[in-house]
Amino acid sequence: MKKQKSLSILAATVALGTLLAGCGGGQSSAPQSNSGGGSTSGGGAGEKLVIAVVGPMSGQYSDYGSTAKAGAEYALKEKQEAFKALGFDVQLSAQDDQADPKQGVAVAQMLISNPDVVGVVGHATTGASITAAAQYDQEKLVMVSPSATGSDLTEQGKKIVHRICARDDQQGSKAAIYAKNQLGVKSAFIMHDKAAYGQGLAEEVKKQFEADGVQIVGFEGVTAGEKDYSAVINQIVSKNPEMIYFGGYYSDAGIIVKQAREKGFKGIFMGGDGYDSADLVKIAGAENANNVVFTSTVGDVGATEEGKKWIEDFEKSTGNKVGIFTSFGYDSMGVMLNGLEEAIKANGGKKPTREQVLEAVHKTKDYKGKFVNVTFNDKGDNEFASVYVYKYEDGKKVYIGEAK
């Protein structure tokens, strides 16, 4: 591995467990606009540079954006003094896209209009990332997403797009392989919420099950936000599959789990990192949530002593609990800051252009993050990204290990 430069991040190793992996959803509302805004630096000396952190900071998917922001902010605070020594005051601007593709565009346009913004950590979800990327691409403004998993995001040929997490085609196929080989599943009913993330995952699971000879007894899309899924659940119960796979988020998954259990389904539920929320257990009920398995692009931060120490330091320093994308928000900001430093050096110590920052980030190779190592391929996908498995047991999330 290549030795990191002077700004390499200090701390732990490994990763944290869902979502949203990355997809769309949420409601419309005006983006938070504080053009130079959300500074974590306290306005120190030096030429100002702004890195935006974008995701759902409010609404039902706020866990995804707010936890990524907390990790990114922590990483930036650790490096601000080093950047001041280089003559720059690097600030953070947090923006709320509500996990809504339209809001993603509005936020992107606002950020583009601020010449101090040189990079974006985000967006957190796939739908908003795709629409925002079209805007950033016009201005060569680089983005590094901690959690947008949709395969289409990096298949559109936009050089500005990067992510440190695994793609849905990796997550979906590995989930299906795990279900067959480790859980012994021979038949499954597959559902999805008709959104970019949920449907993308479900289609990848279907493809892998078909290749491996697992019988698919049904494939149905449902409308997210419904309160009664009995029509499709009656279908499922009559076909008696060993597993229900639902591609979507915890808010719908919790209702589906509860209603299916009430109708007598005793088999396995499975989904992606959209299930990674204690609210799924609250909605479904702790007993009903037993035997709910989900994959995530983030591993267990506390699986090592080093990771436990990082959690302790983070929580003591910030007053926040480590959440679903705290670790990947931290490493995404680390990648961005590493690229920014390289761009400053390549530009003779002067403020780099957006395109120079983009070039430096795009060339990231063997970056040793605290929770995931990063080498971007030409598409902007991380060659070191992995998929992990969790389950709910007695109301608690239990880490199983890497999906094999």
From TrEMBL:
Keywords: Amino-acid transport, Signal, Transport. Residues 50-395 form the Leucine-binding protein domain. Residues 1-21 form the signal peptide. One of its GO terms (biological process) is amino acid transport. InterPro entries: Leu-bd, Leu_Ile_Val-bd, Peripla_BP_I. It holds the Pfam family Peripla_BP_6. Belongs to the leucine-binding protein family. This is Branched-chain amino acid ABC transporter substrate-binding protein. It comes from Brevibacillus agri.
